[in-house]
UniProtKB/TrEMBL annotation:
Protein name, entry field: 50S ribosomal protein L11 methyltransferase
Keywords: Methyltransferase, Ribonucleoprotein, Ribosomal protein, Transferase
Classification via InterPro entries: SAM-dependent_MTases_sf, Thump-like
Gene Ontology biological process: methylation
Domain of life from the UniProt record: Bacteria
UniProt domain THUMP-like: residue ranges: 328-399
GO cellular component terms, semicolon-separated: ribosome
Length: 405
């Protein structure tokens, strides 16, 4: 967004219009035209419509707070979901820091949680328009200052805790118009090596990164926490100093009503890491456990075993109870079907299956192509899992077991 557009949006009589817009994607053109007819210039009308669209999308991350905020498309894409930001705040406030520096605060989601839960925050943002929007979004929190500047220029002696969420996208868009992700940690902004050096200068540090982070990059003695929220793996956060709870890797599975944590110390020794016979159930571990490399930590508590060494599915004979339920999706195995296309088709037709949902791990297939080539006649819908049992390729016919089922 241009700074002149933001300035116009912040004019009280223009901003007031935003609350009255009932945005529906199908009405976008009509909406812009109505706003122009009411006397607004075309750029301002377009900016209001785009803010209304972003507010609607932002409710998923920010809940009711979205209705009092402004956004950029990139800023919203990069913002932490509020329940996850609240978790960051609990972690970062645990050592009771006098000042948390949030360097690269974006639109302000993490800062909002830090200050909302009682912290004093010095937020810094390198992009001028984003910094101005963050100032606006955080206007009701009187323990926050937002400065337009670079993390690298911030005086770290001011902070008793440091929060970093480095930018990991280029401004270049891919074919679908989405910003492309950067994989080289030295190209993050600020860079990962700068972040690690800065962490040595403050009592407590948290660094939010993408969940695909190479485990080798986690420095010894740090805590690396992979987090999923409502089934989506959202980040790995690295904690150091007073912000660290327990060194090493852990996975935190956040849901609406519970948080379950699994630590690497729960992973069995190699010889206990059994590959076993297929049981009655297939378990798909939460993505945070998969990314953290902690799938086998579930074997003992779930009474489960691996189906094949490199594959992140487990099998067992009973459904998980208690906290274990939050850590896996469970499927009842109805049948083991042949992996070849012709015998598979025959088996599905015999069972009256006409539509398939395809999941896969350890199988080199393209689900859409398989679905097309199966050319099934009309019939029931079923879920197929293309995977391996030991070394053998198999297709499992499964039914998901949900709490309601
Ligand atoms: C991933 S976003 C932060 C999102 C934020 N934690 C939130 O939840 O809303 C990273 C932000 O860092 C800013 N940034 C990039 N390089 C920076 C630097 N060197 N100093 C300060 N900010 C920087 C980007 O403009 C971007 O807004």
């Amino acid at each position: 967004m241009e700074s002149s557009t933001l300035a116009r949006l912040l004019e009280p009589e223009v901003y007031a219009r935003l609350a009255d817009i009932e945005y529906r994607p199908a009405d976008e053109l009509a909406l812009a035209s109505r706003l122009r007819k009411s006397g607004l210039d075309p750029d301002t009308a377009a900016a209001l419509v785009s803010q209304a669209a972003l507010r609607l999308a932002a409710a998923e991350k920010f809940g009711p707070f979205a209705a009092g905020m402004l956004f950029t498309r990139d800023g919203l894409a990069q913002a932490t979901r509020l329940p996850v930001a609240a978790h960051h705040a609990q972690r970062m406030l645990a050592s009771d820091p006098q000042v948390i520096a949030d360097l690269g605060c974006g639109l302000g989601a993490d800062t909002m949680a830090f200050a909302g839960l009682g912290g004093t925050v010095e937020a810094v943002e390198a992009d001028e328009v984003t910094a101005a929007i963050a100032t606006f979004n955080l206007r009701s929190l009187d323990t926050v200052t937002v400065t337009h500047g670079r993390a690298e220029d911030y005086d770290l002696t001011r902070a008793s805790a440091l929060w970093l969420d480095p930018a990991r996208r280029t401004s270049r868009a891919d074919a679908r118009g989405n910003a492309t992700r950067i994989s080289d940690p030295e190209a993050f902004s600020p860079s990962l090596s700068w972040a690690f050096t800065a962490a040595e200068q403050v009592p407590a540090t948290g660094i939010k990164l993408g969940p695909a982070l190479d485990h080798e990059l986690v420095p010894p003695g740090w805590e690396a926490q992979w987090v999923s929220h409502d089934g989506d793996v959202v980040e790995v956060a690295l904690y150091h100093g007073e912000a660290r709870q327990e060194a090493g890797r852990n996975a935190l599975v956040l849901g609406a009503d519970r948080a379950v944590r699994v630590h690497e110390s729960e992973v069995p020794a190699e010889d206990e890491d059994r590959i076993g016979e297929l049981g009655d159930f297939l378990f798909e571990p939460d993505g945070a456990l998969v990314r953290a490399g902690l799938v086998t930590a579930l074997c003992a508590p779930l009474g489960a075993r691996r189906i094949s060494k490199p594959i992140a599915y487990l099998t067992g004979d009973r459904l998980p109870g208690g906290a274990g339920r939050a850590l896996v999706r469970s499927f009842r195995i109805r049948d083991v079907l042949p992996a070849g296309l012709k015998p598979l088709r025959r088996a599905l037709v015999e069972r009256g299956v006409g539509k398939v949902v395809i999941k896969k791990r350890g199988a080199d297939i393209v689900p859409d192509t398989v679905r097309r080539r199966l050319k099934l006649p009309p019939g029931e819908q079923a879920t197929l899992v293309f995977t391996r049992l030991g070394e053998d390729h198999v297709v499992l016919l499964v039914d998901e077991v949900t709490d309601a089922a």
